Amino acid sequence: MKKLLALMLALIMVFALVGPTAFADDNVTISLWTYPIGKWTDEATVKGFIDAFNEVHPEITVKVEYLDYTNGDDKINTAIEGGQAPDIVMEGPERLIANWGAKGLMLDLADLVPAGTYEGVAGSCTSADGKVYELPVCMTAHCMAINKDVFEEADALQYIDLENHTWTTENFFKAVQAVYDAGYEYVGTVFCGGQGGDQGTRALVTNLCGGTYANPEHTEYTYASEENAKALSLLCAQDGISFDPAIVASDEIQNFVNGTFQMAFCWNATQEVNNADALGFDVFPMAFPAPEGVPSLQGGIWGFGVFDNKDEARANAAKEFIKFLTEDDGIYAQVVEATNFQPVRDVAGVYEGNELMAEYALMNPMMGDYYQITKGWTTARTEWWNMLQRVGESDGTAETILAELTQAQDAANAAAAAE
Amino acid sequence: MPKNTLAASRTRRLVLQENVAAYLFLLPFLIFFVGFVLYPMFMCLYTSFFDATMGRKDIFVGFANYRELTADPVFWVALKNTMVIVIVSVPITCAFSLWVATIISRMPVAATSAFRCIFYLPVVTGSVAVTMVWKWMFNNYYGIFNYLGKSTGLIEKSINWLGDPKYALGCIILILLTTSVGQPIVLYVSALDNVDKTLVEAAEVDGATPFQAFWRVKWQQMMPTTLYILVITTINSFQCFALIQLLTSGGPKNSTMTIMYYIYYNAFKLYRYGYGNAMGVILAIIIAILSAIQFRLGQEK
Questions:
Q1: Domain span including residue B148
Q2: What predicted TM-score, i.e. pTM, was given to this entire model?
Q3: What are the start-end ranges of the E strands in A213-295?
């Protein structure tokens, strides 16, 4: 009797171990890991898309993991090293193309891109050797924002082109001075505690005096220029503008929302939507200041990438899921609206009658070069915020700042050359 | 078969059975020890001789990573900061814990338990939660330290505690102290309870002052506890990471960069696994040497 019981237990254990593979059918389970992109952090929203997909493809199970920008990269990198990379990841070209794609970890999704569909952003989602590592879904032009109520009180709105949401460099500094003189100590802060939201500080510095960050070929970094040194020098000297190594973009946004800062350098439509309940003043989105008032805004393009997990069934299932979300106009419109950003292809019915989105859409024509796919991007980013910390502690002269910019740029270019 | 040979054979079989049973009981721990301690240690040492990164085969570089370390200014800054943290926090943690334990061990049992809980709270509270509270208190714009400082006239204008290289490392050490003293206090209270009361009474009868009774009798009996606390606190101080990651990312201007954070930065941000592992090996050697010295000194005492 004991032997029979032992045999049964052993059989149960063996079936438990080999069962899933021994009796495998056509069912496939894939994983989707998504960074916080609009409502793609909201379980109910994402589940809605998966449920709709499962009505068409009940044989494919999609498991979701929600990442954040603080430790999302660490999670994915650890998963890659452990051979457990997700099947689909939702993020932008700086990770999908410049990082994991460049390392040969992603699948080419060219077969999912109908000719001419994504012409506006296709170049930014394609690697130097022509592989499409990101199927783009949405985009935005990152901008900044001001507390319109405070600017009005300080009579600083006179320096702003209210119709186009733009201002010149000269008027930007006049406006900051006016707000500062009206009794607001912290008008704006160049946050440099980490890389989070650094698109704001990059756009601010490179636009102020007409500098650049990388060359148009995306082969090397060019931010050690006299224009950028002058821009940083002007920021160092300006009342009401400080360099703060203790905060990152999320802290800056929080301080703007709660009224401590009067402007935010890291802003977009999602920030206004997400903070709508907490905002006690009128937010006015602004383009970054430029000498002639015509800036080159930093773009964000988000979409899906598929990791090459050497499993054809999972890869095909992942592509089916992406096709489902992006091919049909009706579903695609919902997917885009869930991101709070703009669509990357023509589609009817997105944000119809939504004044807020129409206001932010004004920024799109000002979108500049998508240089985040330049090699050595990871090093370039970390060098940037470390450089800002040193500049904030420096004497603020253009010569000193140019030396700091050169040190950071050399390290970034060395990393680019090594890749 | 002769009777005594049969008995010897049975004895050997019983001993073997007992040994096998003992090793089987040890096996689960052994698997974890090998899998999570020995194997990673070996891999750390092994990888330190390679240029290892994501997405390509590792390239053997010999001692190149170690040579690069000697010329890396940030590594030396990180080493200096780590040593400052250890040198400042270890003695203060031990002395403060002993002082608090001495006071609360004289209190009624309920009060002793209450204080033990209070001091142990930061240890059992999640480090992220503790760190976030401290971050709020140190906030440049509306933190309580700046508010109190300005209200009482101690400071004229706000200090960017975590954003100023002059103060940032001090703030990190302060937070580290609050999260480090809980366990030593509990251990010292237990050690004081376990001191042989008859020896203390005998010393007092022989005319020893309270200080002499403490120093000559109690302190001597608490040496093993002190040694344990010293070693654990030293290792914890060397491994200071979460505070740095959550509060300063090693800044401003690398003023709070520690070896542990620099390892993480190289391995997980720059994907330089070999270089990060080389630093890990150096850190392990430093901790091993210091722990050996502490054990040696403790044994001599």
A1: 70-300
A2: 0.82
A3: 241-244, 263-267, 283-286
